């Protein structure tokens, strides 16, 4: 047992999951560990048992040998108990459990509780003529446990034994482990509670564990703590260990964070338990010897992160959970609409489908079997298991119908649950991309079989983003035909003979119609190849929808067309690069290209290009792109990292009804990411839950799951989630800086000035250098001034690695090691030696042990695999002039020998030889930090490195952040902020291949920085107005409409809309109305908010058509379109228009009674009775940021737009397209 505990704690020391350690124990070992003490099986020899029996009942030797004589002294129940005891322990007779049970059962039937307990015990143990029978054991324990005898105690050995209470304890264990009964934590908890109430404190320890995990009871650390305490104070060493661990991490105590006082109290309990010989206590005492509150906090955080890994039940154990699930769905006396559980309904539906599958199996109906089973699998694939007896049917089914979707689903589920993974999973998913189960199976295939977590994550993100985007073949041919006829006003004959359409439509439309017919199988055989031919003709005539359809079909493939991602990209690019702001096909193409660049499908992965495509799509109003762009901003992928921009992109998308964005927005609210406050608040949490509820109501499964997880979320818990995310962010997206396909073009531009001096291989020069020279020839002088030394070095690394690969192909080991060694010396941290070089390098080092380049390559190969050898320092001594060997020796002393001082001294010596070798200077920083991270020498080493390298060196931002961490540790806030901001500025100078910037500790520093620079609400709102994508889109859209309306109609009175019937007036008292803002409105519902008032401010110039259109902003800074109907109700239209111009302009405050929300970012007002205006602040605020100022600048041309600064004026011109409407704004002067 000591060995087992030792192994467990070694696992914990290496951060292995606690759950994984628990799983090390077999079921039987775990059971007997709990049962051994309480049963005291065979506690001694027959002689010892005889002595105890005689002492207890005052029996003589003769009475034992002739127990039938006891009838004159004891009741029959006691006589039978004694005779059973003799048979159990072999006292004066042969040991025989079968006979013992017969006597015990007679006594038990006469009401003897101890006999009931003994009967249960012997049935549980078995042996000596008695067959082990758990169910019979449970029967007797239940009989004893349900007796109302709280004082039924018998003296036994040195302690008190409680038969009814002991039986309750044993039943708690049986229900916990599912032995002889269905596993049921609720019943286990009830039994433990009864036992504890009867004073059997051993049960308190187990009940405490249930409370800690929330198994069968409502989770409560406080109750858990006091149950452990009760048991520990009664002398149970196991409970002492649990109590100590609760003290260590302040779990259930008054304070929620560990303190030294709690740690000392925990150690006290461990010492008591260790003195009693408890091995767990001894091991825990050793581990916690130097425990401090910060370390305890890390233990608490680790436990919180592992919280989901606790005991798992089998959810389809109908016997165990039926009654609970049925009650949750809807009992007869409940209102289903209020109390029904969606999860329970899904569970019951799964049970139903599994039952249907079983019925089909009995009736030998394979078709119905696979259909029902596939439904169950899709509902919850993680817990549905395919029985072995279905195997033959499924194998025959998949052989006969290899392309049947349901059969594929069932067969893959059957194989994967048995640990069999086949390549056909990903093929099936590619063949049927709309099936969510196959997409999920492919992700698991990549994760568990291919062991490629990145590929799995990439596939999941791809599936989530691409699922449903194309809606390929969403309808039947008849439905598609109906849609086509409705759209183009086609007759039945024209559909059947589309060539006749030439007299009515241009060739582009005719070809599009014919392509659509071939795509959907309308009056012809479905044929994607033919469809693409027609679409291509239409696309070449400028039809954007045909371009999109061509790209879509090439992407999907099938029906005679080979899947071709590159061909797909060609057509999407053709559509996406068109300058059309009113064509949905263009916007969708931009969105899909963003996805393709994000995942590297058909193109090289490029987050910058992805971000540009998303930005174009968002600017055109395709809000689905805003969610993806928000994710890029949150991670700093392809764009400068900005939580604020991320937040408002999520918000824009969520407000347009996208449930995925609602989930992302909710999570941002929970951890206050991108908000004016940097720490979570209850208000933020409530707002996040609101968005989850809206998404959940739309059926979003992620939202439903997140809503359950965040049910009891509080600001401290949210802060822990934020901290956990920060720590994970350091392990985020990592690029390969040597990925030329992804980063080549960006690095080339930055290194232009070095081309004339760089000896680049001919094929490399021809492929990417020469074209760049041609492009930049005119501005070469300017480019040469801006050339990057880091980029130059990077190009040299690429060149040498390319030379090494060419040498490998030509089997030239000498050239290979020479080129590879050059690349290694330039940047040893990023150059990895490929596995296929291994044999060459091993042969090379054996043949030429003193060849310098061979040594460099061999040492790099070994150290990158974690192998350190003594020959490193020998090689450095042999070749003291080689900087790489000097660096390797320094790292050898630092990481292998663990001697920072020796490493430091060595670095100081060799820096005299290589004073400017940046990697040695960086090594010095690490060495000094290991010795004393709070010394002046540490700061000097950082400055020494930074002064020696160019500003775009990949280690420069880290230098600033290390200094920021130093100043943070000594609580110098001003220097901390200064250094952190210097790090942010240095990041902007980095090559793309080193972004997003990652280093250990960056996340925590970012949290500290954001907390220190948190701004007030007014400053935050002003900044928000400059970056909010929704604000940009709605204002730009409004101005485009303004310009097009003036261009088409000139400056003339607007035509009023017809007054609506039904008495659209409002005469009630406005003071009684409830004040609301936009965030009180459900974006998914078209609704009139009766008895409510919305106060807002107009932020753009109005468009006067049949209605009045503008954009408004509420007090929270949220914006919506405003459409006003029925303004001009008098005969003097011109007068009415001038009156409207006076009030429908920026900075006018409005109050709207009973606002009507359309669900499409639009508020409608139906008449003058519903709105009030306040023009008193019309010239007080900047039109861009909303800042109030005494003196404001005005546009030099139109004199209408006013600004607080030149920056806002420039932003209005470029960001909001003021120039396009500037001249036309003069019409407002007439009002």
TrEMBL record:
<keyword id="KW-0862">Zinc</keyword>
<feature type="domain" description="MYND-type">
    <location>
        <begin position="1182"/>
        <end position="1222"/>
    </location>
</feature>
<dbReference type="GO" id="GO:0008270">
    <property type="term" value="F:zinc ion binding"/>
</dbReference>
<dbReference type="InterPro" id="IPR002893">
    <property type="entry name" value="Znf_MYND"/>
</dbReference>
<dbReference type="InterPro" id="IPR006597">
    <property type="entry name" value="Sel1-like"/>
</dbReference>
<dbReference type="Pfam" id="PF01753">
    <property type="entry name" value="zf-MYND"/>
</dbReference>
<keyword id="KW-0479">Metal-binding</keyword>
<dbReference type="InterPro" id="IPR011990">
    <property type="entry name" value="TPR-like_helical_dom_sf"/>
</dbReference>
<keyword id="KW-0863">Zinc-finger</keyword>
<dbReference type="Pfam" id="PF08238">
    <property type="entry name" value="Sel1"/>
</dbReference>
<protein>
    <submittedName>
        <fullName>MYND-type domain-containing protein</fullName>
    </submittedName>
</protein>
<dbReference type="InterPro" id="IPR052945">
    <property type="entry name" value="Mitotic_Regulator"/>
</dbReference>
């Amino acid at each position: 047992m000591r060995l087992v505990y030792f192994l467990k704690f070694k696992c914990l020391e290496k951060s292995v999951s606690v759950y994984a350690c628990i799983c090390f124990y077999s079921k039987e070992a775990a059971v007997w560990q709990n049962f051994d003490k309480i049963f005291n099986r065979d506690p001694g020899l027959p002689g010892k048992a005889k002595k105890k029996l005689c002492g207890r009942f005052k029996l003589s030797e003769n009475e034992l040998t002739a127990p039938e004589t006891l009838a004159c002294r004891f009741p029959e129940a006691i006589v039978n108990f004694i005779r059973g005891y003799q048979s159990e322990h072999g006292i004066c007779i042969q040991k025989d459990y079968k006979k013992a049970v017969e006597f015990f059962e007679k006594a038990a039937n006469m009401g003897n509780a101890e006999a009931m307990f003994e009967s249960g015990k012997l049935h549980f143990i078995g042996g000596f003529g008695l067959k082990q029978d758990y169910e019979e054991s449970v029967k007797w324990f239940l009989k004893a446990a349900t007796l109302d005898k709280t004082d039924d105690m018998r003296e036994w050995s040195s302690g008190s034994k409680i038969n009814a209470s002991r039986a309750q304890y044993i039943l708690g264990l049986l229900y916990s482990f599912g032995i002889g009964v269905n596993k049921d934590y609720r019943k286990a908890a009830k039994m433990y509670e009864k036992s504890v109430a009867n004073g059997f404190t051993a049960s308190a320890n187990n009940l405490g564990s249930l409370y800690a995990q929330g198994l069968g009871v409502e989770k409560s650390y406080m109750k858990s703590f006091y149950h452990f305490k009760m048991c520990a104070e009664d002398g149970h060493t196991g409970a002492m260990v649990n109590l100590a661990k609760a003290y260590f991490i302040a779990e259930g105590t008054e304070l929620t964070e560990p303190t030294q006082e709690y740690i000392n109290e925990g150690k006290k309990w461990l010492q008591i338990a260790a003195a009693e010989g408890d091995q767990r206590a001894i091991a825990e005492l050793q581990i916690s010897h130097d425990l401090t509150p910060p370390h305890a906090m890390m233990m608490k955080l680790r436990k919180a992160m592992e919280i989901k890994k606790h005991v798992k039940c089998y959810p389809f154990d109908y016997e165990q959970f039926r009654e609970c699930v049925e009650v949750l769905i809807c009992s007869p006396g409940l209102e289903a609409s209020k109390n029904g559980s969606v999860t329970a309904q899904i569970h019951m539906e799964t049970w139903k489908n599994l039952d249907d599958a079983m019925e089909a199996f009995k009736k030998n109906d394979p078709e119905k079997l696979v259909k029902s089973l596939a439904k169950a699998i899709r509902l919850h694939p993680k817990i549905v298991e395919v029985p072995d007896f279905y195997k033959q049917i499924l194998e025959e089914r998949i052989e006969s119908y290899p392309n049947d979707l349901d059969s594929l689903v069932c067969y893959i589920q059957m194989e994967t649950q048995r640990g069999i993974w086949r390549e056909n999973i990903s093929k099936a998913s590619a063949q049927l991309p709309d099936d969510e189960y196959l997409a999920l199976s492919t992700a698991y295939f990549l994760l568990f079989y291919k062991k490629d977590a990145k590929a799995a994550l990439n596939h999941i993100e791809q599936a989530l983003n691409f699922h449903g985007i194309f809606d390929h073949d969403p309808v039947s041919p008849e439905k598609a035909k109906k849609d086509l006829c409705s759209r183009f006003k086609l007759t039945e004959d024209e559909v059947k003979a589309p060539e006749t359409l030439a007299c009515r439509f241009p060739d582009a439309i005719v070809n599009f119609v014919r392509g659509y017919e071939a795509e959907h199988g309308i009056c012809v055989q479905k044929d994607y190849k033919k469809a693409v031919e027609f679409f291509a003709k239409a696309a070449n005539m400028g039809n954007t929808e045909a371009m999109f359809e061509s790209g879509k079909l090439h992407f999907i493939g099938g029906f005679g067309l080979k899947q071709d991602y590159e061909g797909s990209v060609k057509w999407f690019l053709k559509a996406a690069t068109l300058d059309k702001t009113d064509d949905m096909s263009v916007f969708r193409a931009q969105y899909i290209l963003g996805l393709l660049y994000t995942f590297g499908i058909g193109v090289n992965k490029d987050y910058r290009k992805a971000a540009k495509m998303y930005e174009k799509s968002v600017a055109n109003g395709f809000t689905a792109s805003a969610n993806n762009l928000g994710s890029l901003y949150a991670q700093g992928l392809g764009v400068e990292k900005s939580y604020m921009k991320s937040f408002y992109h999520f918000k824009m998308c969520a407000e347009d009804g996208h449930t995925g964005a609602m989930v992302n927005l909710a999570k941002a609210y929970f951890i206050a990411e991108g908000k004016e406050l940097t720490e979570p608040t209850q208000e933020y949490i409530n707002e996040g839950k609101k968005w989850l509820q809206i998404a959940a109501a739309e059926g979003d499964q992620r939202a439903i799951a997140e809503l359950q997880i965040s049910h009891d979320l509080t600001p401290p818990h949210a802060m822990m989630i934020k901290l956990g995310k920060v720590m994970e962010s350091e392990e985020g997206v990592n690029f390969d800086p040597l990925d030329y396909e992804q980063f080549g073009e960006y690095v080339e531009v930055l290194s232009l000035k070095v081309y004339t001096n760089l000896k680049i291989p001919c094929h490399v020069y021809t492929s990417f250098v020469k074209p760049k020279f041609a492009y930049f020839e005119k501005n070469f002088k300017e480019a040469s001034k801006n050339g990057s030394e880091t980029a130059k070095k990077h190009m040299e690394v690429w060149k040498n690695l390319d030379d090494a690969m060419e040498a490998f192909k030509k089997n030239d080991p000498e050239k290979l090691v020479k080129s590879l060694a050059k690349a290694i010396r330039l940047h040893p941290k990023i150059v990895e030696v490929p596995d296929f070089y291994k044999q060459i390098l091993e042969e090379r080092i054996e043949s030429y042990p003193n060849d310098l380049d061979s040594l460099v390559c061999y040492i790099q190969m070994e150290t990158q695999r974690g192998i350190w050898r003594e020959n490193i320092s020998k090689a450095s001594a042999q070749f003291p002039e080689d900087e790489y060997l000097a660096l390797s020796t320094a790292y050898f002393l630092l990481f292998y020998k663990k001697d920072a001082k020796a490493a430091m001294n060595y670095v100081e010596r060799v820096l005299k030889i290589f004073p400017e070798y940046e990697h040695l200077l960086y090594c010095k920083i690490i060495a000094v930090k290991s010795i004393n991270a709070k010394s002046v020498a540490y700061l000097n080493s950082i400055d020494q490195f930074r002064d020696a390298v160019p500003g775009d060196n990949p280690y420069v931002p880290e230098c600033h952040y290390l200094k920021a961490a130093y100043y943070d540790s000594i609580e110098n806030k001003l220097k901390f902020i200064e250094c952190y901001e210097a790090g942010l500025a240095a990041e902007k100078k980095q090559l793309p291949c080193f972004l997003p910037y990652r280093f250990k500790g960056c996340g925590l520093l970012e949290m500290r920085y954001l907390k220190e620079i948190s701004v007030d609400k007014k400053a935050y709102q002003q900044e928000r107005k400059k970056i909010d994508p929704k604000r940009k889109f709605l204002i730009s859209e409004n101005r485009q409409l303004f310009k097009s309306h003036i261009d088409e109609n000139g400056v003339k009175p607007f035509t009023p809309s017809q007054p609506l019937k039904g008495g659209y007036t409002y005469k009630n008292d406005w003071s009684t109305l409830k004040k609301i803002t936009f965030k009180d409105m459900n974006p998914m519902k078209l609704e009139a908010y009766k008895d409510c008032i919305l106060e807002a401010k107009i932020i753009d110039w109005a468009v006067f058509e049949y209605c009045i259109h503008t954009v408004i902003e509420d007090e929270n800074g949220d914006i919506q379109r405003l459409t006003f109907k029925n303004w001009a109700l008098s005969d003097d239209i011109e007068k009415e228009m001038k009156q409207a111009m006076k009030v429908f302009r920026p900075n006018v405050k409005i109050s709207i009674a009973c606002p009507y929300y359309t669900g499409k970012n639009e508020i409608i007002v139906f008449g003058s009775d519903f709105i009030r205006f306040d023009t008193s602040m019309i010239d007080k605020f900047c039109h861009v940021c909303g800042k109030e100022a005494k003196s404001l600048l005005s546009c030099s041309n139109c004199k209408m737009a006013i600004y607080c600064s030149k920056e806002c004026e420039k932003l209005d011109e470029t960001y909001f397209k003021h120039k396009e409407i500037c001249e036309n704004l003069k019409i407002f002067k007439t009002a």
